[in-house]
Amino acid sequence: MPNADALRPEDAAEQLTAVGRRFHARGWVLGTSGNFSVVTSRDPLRLSITASSVDKGALEPSNIIDIDDTCGVHGGYGNPSAETLLHLEIVRRRGAGAVLHTHSVWGTLLSDSHGLDGGLTIEGYEMLKGLDGVRTHEHREWVPIVANDQDMTRLARVVGITLDRDRAAHAILLQRHGLYTWGATLADAVRHIEILEFLFETMGRTATYRSRGGQYGTAQDS
Amino acid sequence: MPNADALRPEDAAEQLTAVGRRFHARGWVLGTSGNFSVVTSRDPLRLSITASSVDKGALEPSNIIDIDDTCGVHGGYGNPSAETLLHLEIVRRRGAGAVLHTHSVWGTLLSDSHGLDGGLTIEGYEMLKGLDGVRTHEHREWVPIVANDQDMTRLARVVGITLDRDRAAHAILLQRHGLYTWGATLADAVRHIEILEFLFETMGRTATYRSRGGQYGTAQDS
Amino acid sequence: MPNADALRPEDAAEQLTAVGRRFHARGWVLGTSGNFSVVTSRDPLRLSITASSVDKGALEPSNIIDIDDTCGVHGGYGNPSAETLLHLEIVRRRGAGAVLHTHSVWGTLLSDSHGLDGGLTIEGYEMLKGLDGVRTHEHREWVPIVANDQDMTRLARVVGITLDRDRAAHAILLQRHGLYTWGATLADAVRHIEILEFLFETMGRTATYRSRGGQYGTAQDS
Amino acid sequence: MPNADALRPEDAAEQLTAVGRRFHARGWVLGTSGNFSVVTSRDPLRLSITASSVDKGALEPSNIIDIDDTCGVHGGYGNPSAETLLHLEIVRRRGAGAVLHTHSVWGTLLSDSHGLDGGLTIEGYEMLKGLDGVRTHEHREWVPIVANDQDMTRLARVVGITLDRDRAAHAILLQRHGLYTWGATLADAVRHIEILEFLFETMGRTATYRSRGGQYGTAQDS
Asked: Quick check: C31 contacting D, CB < 8 Å?
């Protein structure tokens, strides 16, 4: 991942700030929800990550913390996000160069409505082709849903197990909490967020729409 | 609340203007709805509050009025918001440093649909952790709904009684009118608005979504 | 209406341009839909009105036409809006200083769903107080719905008859077409648009929400 | 189409960049979805088209590729859009000066729900008058829906056959993929996108709204 490795912390801070303002404008990181990270060095591992409890609509480069793989802080103001362990887990197990977490209305709704199923299947949409390595709309994407937990060590372990079990997954939903996705570069991760948030809204609206009686069918309806 | 006490009226005016434009962009204070205040002095109590009948999308610092606890005007143009008494009631009973009132579609819808219940319960959402003092998504938040009233003295009294009765509440809904929330600082109150508006939209869309037959369940469904 | 009478055509053009960009950002005047006018002189009557077929998201002062009460053009480029006769009818019968027409999704939906009723009743909402002369949320607003017609002379006559019949109305909906409202000043008309579009969306979402079975009631439900 | 023919590639790049940012702000081209082209020369045919896999929210003039009718690249960085063959097909068979493809939630939803019908009928809406050559809201617009396909040569052939069969159509939907429309100029094509996206949202919301039991009727209901 040369482009991720080449990144200087000050450039990472600028880029994450722009991402935060962009997602806040869409309503995907309201309150102080959401957190974002990008790898600036592989060996030793160094991560630039948003500080805890900051308003993403007013994000400043100084709100980006430079940390190592033990959560040691090497730069920036404030504490690293409470969910830093999840970012590190994803970076380690997926070799991701960037990890993004959004907290949208539709992601929250689907993580809730499909909670008992343990996940969500998305298939047949052209938009799926924007996910890394997907070549056709006939792709079947499984988005695992993990129960929410305030014990971050335990939650990180469950996320790790889920990443190892569902090796093809491009994302994870935390129930009634939100979306985690990643990419080789920050641009890839941003693309994954936009694609998955689009698909969550489309699926949510389609399910509501179908409630009118389902006289509309599609080739893929069983 | 040092950060609230330290605030100069001219800085308060700048900050409230930015909040107004931000919420107007989201469609939460259309028409001339909504009003915002921040405490600039505790003793004697001084409040900077939006003037009555101003367009929040074109809010200017001159639209912010500097008043005392008898509604006496000490600066700014126009009259203080017609709902100033509600702001003073909240400041007194909660020791709030800022009070914000939005008037969104989803807040209006839920304040209407849950009107007979006298309030609304929100629980199980990670977003609740953004509310002051809440540490887990398992928190159960009760948002009391008060009948709307044009007699501001009477409405302020009912709001006061409600604040004393529901001591854990972070907000109040006025039926078919909108949301009141507050915080130690303006930033805390802004965060509360974004969190509650997010949760109202999520609950409203979930209830509509479930109408498809409820074959989707969640761990917390009874 | 001194503030309307005092307006110079060049100032009117600037103000209408800002209104157009603001409403386009909300999605209320997509395509080249919508048209806006403001009275610059009462006697003789002179109106500044948007040109026909212009993109409201890229509106320029040169797109604003200065016309008289016979639709004679005195300034600006292009032709006055095809719906100029409706603006003149409203200015004459209501003494309006500004007339605004938006074309939103929710306005179109309600003008369709309530078409056979000949109109729409809105009551019990605090937001109604933003309508000129309304003092309480208990106000009952009747918004007449007029069948759409490509014969502008005939449509203007029907609109005129409707204005005379429903003297208390603050607005008219054209079926599957959109909203017309007005005010003593441009600011009043903008406020009326934002209030009515808010109420249309709230009513539309509430009706869809209720489809879940209506176990939610409100004090005002019959 | 003089205004299309007169266009210089550098001006085309500027204009397509502005269109991309405008549609991205609406959420119509999230991820790297959507692609846009404009004819800069008729004979020989030269087309300015967005590069493949670019973020439309950060589109730069350098992302616009200057190609000929054999997809030969004459300027710009990156590869022309994977869907270039569809653009060329539309330009040839409709003599279009610009072709735009968006990928919205409502377009995707309707292309899915009406997939088995082979298309979608839109009628009775004033907004239809913004489509080239349409003079009345009583117009009946048929939007054909073509099954999605990753074989672009085959898909282009099907699109071509559809364009020849449905000669009056102003647009085509690709199932679970999105909207293609065009115009004599880029401004005409932008207007068509805004109109059709508006109508898709209106029809989608109306169908959901009617699910409440249909006690609301309209003159055109059967």
From this structure: yes
When CB atoms are compared, the residue of C137, C190, C209 closest to B208 is C209
Do B97 and B38 meet the contact criterion of CB atoms below 8 Å apart?
Answer: yes
Residue type, A20: G
Residue-wise pLDDT for D37-53, tens only, equals 999 999 999 999 999 99
Q: Which residues contact C80 (CB under 8 A, 6 or more apart)?
A: C49, C51, C52, C65, C67, C71, C73
Is there a contact between C108 and D127 if contact means CB atoms under 8 Å apart? yes
Work out whether the CA dihedral A183, A189, A192, A193 comes out positive or negative: positive
Please report which confidence band the pLDDT of residue A5 belongs to, taking 50, 70 and 90 as the band edges.
Answer: low
| Beta-carbon pairs below 8 A across chains A and B | 87
- Cβ distance D208 to C204 less than 8 Å, yes or no, reads no
Q: How far is CA A89 from CA A70, A82, A83, A160, C164, in A?
A: 12, 13, 10, 6, 70
Which amino acid is residue A90, in one-letter code? I
pTM for the full predicted model: 0.94
Q: Do A115 and B209 touch (CB under 8 A)?
A: no
Would you call A215 helix, strand, or coil by DSSP? coil
- Which residue from A112, A56, A116 is spatially nearest to A81, judged by alpha carbons? A56
Q: Pick from A26, A126, A209: which is nearest to D177 by CB? A: A126
CA angle C33, C34, C35 (to 5 degrees): 130
Smallest CA–CA distance from A203 into chain B, residue = B209
DSSP D74-138: EESSSPBPTTHHHHHHHHHHH--SEEEEE--HHHHHHHHHTGGGTEEEEES-GGGGGSTT---TT
What is the token pair recorded at D37?
């082209």
- Residue pair D219/D130 in contact (Cβ under 8 Å)? The answer is no
